[in-house]
Amino acid sequence: QVQPVESGGGLAQVGGSLRLSCAASEGTxxxxxxxxxxxAPGKEREFxxxxxxxxxxxxxxxxxxxxxxxxxxxxxxxxxxxxxSLKSEDTGVYYCAAGRAIQSTVRSASAYYYWGxxxxxxxxx
Length: 125
Fold this sequence. Notes:
Layout: E1 3-7, E2 10-13, E3 18-25, E4 33-39, E5 46-52, E6 58-60, E7 68-73, E8 78-83, E9 92-99, E10 114-115, E11 119-124
Parallel strand pairs: 2-11
Antiparallel strand pairs: 1-3, 3-8, 4-5, 4-9, 5-6, 7-8, 9-10, 9-11
């Protein structure tokens, strides 16, 4: 049992950076995979990145590779999504989620069952 809580969203310019946080409340991320998903107003929910809390394995969607970094802080029970070189298409509501995903399902929202309420990211010129 864990409750992810997102923070750090806001307005950024194209080429800028934002760091999103996903803090665990009511538990820890032990034994979980923690993933980030985003949804633009007119698009489907999209996988962004994920990290294995214990092992540190990371996963990214192709569109953010080389720009985004995912990491975790054990002391703060927090997963971070560092977003650099932001593009307008990065705009959307970003959700953090935890679940016991296997490698074949790590990019699937259905593998996650503890979800945060989301944080808005807006990227403009």
